[in-house]
Amino acid sequence: MFAYYLDLALRSLRRNKALTALMVLAIALGIGASMTTLTVLHVLSGDPLPGRSGSLYYPQMDPRDMDGYKPQDDPPEQVTWIDGMALLHAKRARYQALMTGGAVPIQPANSAIDPFFEDARYTSADFFPMFDVPFLFGHGWNAADDGASAHVVVLSRKLNDKLFGGKDSTGQMLRVDDMAFRIVGVLDSWRPTPHFYDLYTGSYSSEEGVFVPLTTATDMKFTHNGSNDCWGKGQSDNMKTATCTWLQLWVQLDTPAEAAAYRKFLLNYSSEQKALGRFQRPPNVRLPDVMGWLDYNKVVPSDVHLQVWLAFGFLLVCLVNTVGLMLAKFLRRSGELGIRRALGASRRSLFAQLLTEAGVVGLVGGSGGLLLALLGLWLVRRQPSDYAALAYLDLPMLLATFAAAVVATLLAGLLPAWRACLIPPALQLKSN
Amino acid sequence: MDIRPIFSTLRRHKITSLLLVLEIALTCAIVCNAVFLISQRLQRTEMVSGVAEHELVQIHVANIGKPADARARAQEDLALLRRIPGVTAAALLNQVPFTNSSSNTGIKLDPTQKLHTLSATMYMGEGVIDTLGARLVAGRDFNADEYMDFDAMRSDPDLQSKVGSVVITQALGERLWPGESALGKNIYLGETSVRVIGVVQSLIRPSLFRGDDSAQWTMVFPLRMSAASATRYVLRTAPGQRESVMAAAGKVLRENDPRRIILDTKTLDDIRSHFFQNDRAMAGILVGVIIALLVVTALGIVGLASFWVAQRRRTIGVRRALGATRRNILHYFQTENFLLATIGIVLGMVLAYGINLFLMAHYELPRLPAVYFPVGAVALWVIGQLAVLGPALRAAAVPPVVATRSV
């Protein structure tokens, strides 16, 4: 039966090519625009570490003085050196890493490459196992290296390609800011999206080229990039004692019970510090997980949301347009439908026939929409924003494109098909 | 023209007419808001900076290791840069307009205040006002003996209280002391007070991370930067010599310290254009959406009108046979479209207002000014009339003899 309906649908669509083309075009444009913007939204609001993000937490506390205190204030988004180190050494979580961003001059041994600046991450040993960072060669450094401010460095795959032509460079020395660093590891390609662990160096920035122990970087006074929020005496040359928050702390807690225990630990720590007089505000702690932290920071640019709304508005207009055209088309065929009714076709089968026709329009429109979405994403990739390079269609979004097109067109076909089915058989015969 | 027959015809095609009205209303509402958004974005790219943009060049450098004798190095660099033909002024600054790095601090009007009044940005460097070309509207620029060493102040916080003077923007003065002259007033940074000695017309805050409303909350301090504490050299050039200055400046800086990395050398025009590129891209997308919407709506009108014309061929023939002229038939379809468009537009206005309320709540947009409503209305009327013209002409071409034929 379906094959017969399909045949009827194709015949009917072929009979009025211009109109069919119009409907297909409208669906394709609407779906293409919507899927382009939805794909961008999907990529940007994705989970940076699927499977792991639920057990990674970002401890926050409030170490500030009473200047400008408002009880409803959120705690600062980063921690001080003193608190960060205290929590790092407390080892209350399975893994914990303290970090911040920066940039360092690299002086390649190969004189064919001029010295250049490279984005760097200053962090502690647990960074690599906690975020499950893949290694191409070697491994990360250990806690002893952190303690000794060792001159060790881990390179990204890209930087290793640039400096060593992709060969295993572990064990070799690299000059960083006029000092010799031993390369202990080379990462494989790794770009968590969003750049969740440090949103201050760009929410969608690519991975850093070099990773250096935070203790080493701070001792060497490497350039710090990111936000530096100070109070009281504030900024000074010694970042270890400055009353500034400038570090991000991440911990891994595998069960909700562990997370609850850690939150309690943070509260106790804050009360203790208040009793000691270091903290002045009442304890105010937070412990968001990765997705909670990304939500809190509203990482997806508001323009992207706006574009999604815009595309949906456009799709709605395209659908209303299609409903109108389909209605006109179906009603125009009252004669044919009346004859089919008179010959014994039930309303239900007429309805099915008309919806098949709508479905065909949807499928063809969906294919057009897919092409337009690919074109749209290509245009997005040529945009200046830092997330542009990420805008690619994945399989779920590809299937969603077809599903959306067919569902939308079937919905658009419901009203016209229903109206057309109401045609009484006899009347149509008579009028002809 | 009598519009009663049109209404009675439309009443027989209730659903189709309703759909057309709905499509016009939606298009009109979206177009109104999109045009408004475009104007907002374009207006943002026109933001006043208060500096001589067309004459400025920034050279952003980075050091390898800590530069030896950073203070002398900075003075040497600047002396060499000033010697380049075409350079009219040179300065070493902590921050530059339209870049994404800035120093900001909370300020108070009274040292006993619990909360900061607001957060303003701080320009530091010798000759900021002259080099950037900010226009003084009251008071004076800093005297040479007012400048203090930034590095010295950083290693000895007690020196902070010795920085006695500040130059602020007109907008900041107006925000802090509405209706009064800012000259001679005191601002408190923590415990330290500084006196306003000059007011510039405007000087934009580098990264506008606190929103566009505070774009002009700017202070300039008499602090001399060293090659260790600042990395942005700004050159003001004579007209037409920007390109040659840019080429020479990088060379001069590298020669004076071969261990330095030049991160980039750019004109302020380029830096500005880069800063607003997202706004321009968004405006472009919106223009695309408006065009697509109008095209789809126009094609929808063409499609439906063609159907109606085909359906009513017999009626048209009868009317022609009864004496209606071609012009009458043409006007009939044009009026029909005008009526539908008008209903759609009225509905669209209400919808446009609703969408604007939604955007205001979620995207911090201002209220849609009334001038944008006619824009959508005129666009839809014109599109409607253009779209219906083809089918209407075809209708007018139906010969009276059709009336005598059975279908």
Explain what the structure shows.
By secondary structure, chain A is of the alpha+beta class. Chain A has helices spanning 2-15, 17-44, 81-90, 127-130, 143-147, 157-164, 214-219, 256-276, 290-296, 302-332, 334-342, 347-381, 395-421, 425-431, and strands spanning 56-57, 95-107, 116-123, 135-138, 152-155, 173-176, 179-187, 210-213, 223-225, 229-230, 244-245, 248-252. Chain A folds into two domains: 2-45 and 301-431, no CATH class; 53-296, no CATH class. Helices cover 49% and strands 14% of the residues of chain A. A six-stranded mixed beta barrel of chain A has the order 2-3-8-5-7-6. Chain A starts with a helix and ends with a helix. With 407 residues, chain B is of the alpha+beta class. Chain B folds into two domains: 4-46 and 277-404, no CATH class; 53-270, no CATH class. In chain B, strand 8 and strand 9 (192-200) form a beta hairpin. The relative contact order of chain B is 0.19. At the A-B interface, helix 2, strand 2 and helix 10 of A face helix 2, helix 9 and helix 11 of B. Chain B: Keywords: Cell membrane, Membrane, Transmembrane, Transmembrane helix. Chain B: Pfam families: FtsX (PF02687), MacB_PCD (PF12704).
